[in-house]
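Exercise: predict the fold of this chain.
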Amino acid sequence: MTSNKQLIVAIGMTLSFFTVSVCAQGSGPKLNRFSTEGISFEYPAGYSVSDESTTETQEFIISRCARREILTHKALRTAS
């Protein structure tokens, strides 16, 4: 290989390395964390979590856009 071809190959390999490194470091979706009374989870930014728990049940409502319910989780509490 001539030195010009070697230089072109070396530059190409370097650019490929930097491109892969930058793509691998891409940020994922922004997440918020909810944690209370022995339960914790992450949910996407832009959503809200409301705690509608009572002494008998744990109930969390994940919503977006003015309380339109997306997911409701309800579980009975048990005596430990």
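Check your answer against the key: The mean pLDDT is 75.
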